[in-house]
Amino acid sequence: MDAIVRVDPNIDPARFRRTLGHYPTGVCLITAIEPDVGPAAMVVGSFTSVSLDPPLVAFFPDRSSTSWPRIQRAGRFCVHVLGVDQLGLCQRFASKTGEKFAGLDYRLSTGGSPMIDGVVAWVDCEIDAVHEAGDHFIVVGRVIELDMVEGSEPLLFLRGAYGGFAATL
Description:
- Helices cover 14% and strands 40% of the residues.
- The chain is mainly beta and 169 residues long.
- The chain has a single domain, classed as Pnp Oxidase, Chain A.
- A seven-stranded antiparallel beta sheet has the order 3-2-6-9-10-5-4. A three-stranded antiparallel beta sheet has the order 1-11-12, with no helix packed on it.
- A hairpin with a 2-residue loop joins strand 9 and strand 10 (136-148).
- The longest helix is centred in the N-terminal third of the chain and has 8 residues, at 13-20.
């Protein structure tokens, strides 16, 4: 019989964040067009592939996000893997103020979501499922189209700071 490991329910959230901050994440911009309202977007550091067959990806918006309900109402979204030279774009969309799309050129994906040029890769999706997970949601997207830009380096987030990747091999 396997031993049951009990997790301390009183784990300090700041320590949890600092500890997991030692694992680098990519920085992604999620965009959508909310029906009858217009473009919506949010920056996430929690994006992952889920399945090859069918092709599924996921991201994890905070329950308190004001952008996530707008994206959910769209029923579809486009993930943009931001490049190391796009910190300004990240900061623009991470801001709680201002019209994030003002003066920004974009085109629409096959699925109808805003697509911003110059990103490392993009993944156009329809919402497949949404699951509750503590203070976040797990949003599973069914991939309908995707592409990448060869040679571009991703923007990374590690220990509270943004940076790039330097290959050592």
